[in-house]
Amino acid sequence: MRYLFALFAAAMVALGVSHANAFTFTLTPIAVCEDDGSNCTRTSFDLGAVNSILAPANISVDLAPEIELRDSGVLAAPSVFDYLVFVRGTFETQIGTDEIWFAFGPLFLPDDMFSNAFLAGPGFVLRDTTETELETIVMARSIGLMLGLFNCEAQFDGMCDGNLMASTRATIGAALLPEQIETMRQSPLLEADPIPLPAAAWVFLTGLAGLAGWRKTNAA
Question: What's the pLDDT tens digit per position in 25-42?
Fold first, then answer.
């Protein structure tokens, strides 16, 4: 009897742990192109590396189909070719010029800025760079801002060396504090993904079957 109750308790623990949610954050890449759809800006990046940074929070980025913004006027704005543009969520139709300008304002960044993102904002602009590691960290940082994170020094001064939300290039890294992970996981911009329960379910059912068998034996 003691063994059966222990098995049942273990099943409940396993079932509870396996119910912990993974989350998905959806981004739509925006290719800024000429009016005829040619000469588009880059939208590719190392998605796996970004997801590795967000993995401690059990968050992964999912890319919706790319959308083209066909507007030679926007493309001709200063240094637009230097940017990667993303908006959160998905779009059923081609995004319009008015929408992209509402989301980001003028498509340029000061020389000392690598990205432009806002707390719970509609998207972000990322400077194109050949420094792949820096691009990955800045992209993950931009997603962190959209999911509710602030500048690390403003909240956790003295704990920010190597943190994703550190304020300077010299100190920025890929680390996340437990408090930051919890903040991101509470964002309403995430979609919860139920984790499959095969192992836990089998343990749970085995425990139930054992208890049922014990009750029948006692009843006899």
Answer: 999 898 888 889 998 888
